[in-house]
Amino acid sequence: MRIADFKNCVAEGGLPEAAIRSLIYVAMADTAVDERSFAALRQVRAKYRDIRLDDFKCLLRKQFFTLLLDREAALDAIPAMLPADENARVELLNTLWKIISASRKPEGERAKRWAEVERLFGAKIKEITKNEVQPPV
Q: Rounded CA gap, 2 and 4, in Å?
């Protein structure tokens, strides 16, 4: 795929593309790829089992290069890729939070990028999920 092709299809896609683009964006705040990155990819892959592995790999590459070539346009396109139903957006956001915070809570640049993802989704995750602690009954 050529650079022009990536730029022309920046707004194409739906939930899987928005989810992967969002995760990659937050993960790009880290300077190195480690086992946490691969664990996150495995969790995303598990969520979208209906996508063939080759197609999933292609989707990852496409979302990564879309962010790399024009981050602002790639991020601005995310809201249009999401469903109008707020509950569906919150559900996906909660799933993304579980993946992003599995090894550690986002700090610094990762936290800023996560806040941007929440803004793009037009929703906030449920505090109980974010804090991962349930109040006593």
A: 5
Count of CA atoms in the C-beta half-sphere (13 A) of 71? 10
Say what the pLDDT of residue 32 is: 61
The answer to whether the beta carbons of residues 26 and 106 sit under 8 Å apart is: yes
Asked whether 16 and 48 are in contact (CB, 8 A), the reply is yes
Residue 125, Cα to own-chain centre: how many angstroms?
A: 13
Q: What is the mean pLDDT of each run of 10 residues along the chain (137 residues)?
A: 71 89 89 66 80 89 91 95 90 88 85 94 64 39
User: pTM higher than 0.90, yes or no?
Assistant: no
* DSSP secondary structure, 24-57, as one string: HHHHTTSSS--HHHHHHHHHHHHHTTTS-HHHHH
